[in-house]
Design goal:
mainly alpha
Amino acid sequence: MAISDSVAGNITTLYLAAIAAIKVYGMAAGRSYGGAFVLIVSTAVVGLVLIAALTWDVSRKATYAVSRDHHDAHEMCRGGICWHGVAVKSPASQVRFRLPQHQP
């Protein structure tokens, strides 16, 4: 699973954590931040985290695509379908799909 998938799956938790951090900082500093400020800052923080995660995933994919030394022996692609984590000789990699014959 990619990092950005984990970030997107936990976006509500990230929002709540950012809001809680802003509120705790405000209490520690003796300040009170308004709702609009908290909403804008928490949205910016979560957006930056999501952009950083997407950038990280894309850079990892690009590095993998450019490098000639692929260490992932458990990936097999045939006809545009890639089997990730499936051994080449595994029965799962030999699955064939057939459409039922149309009978008038």
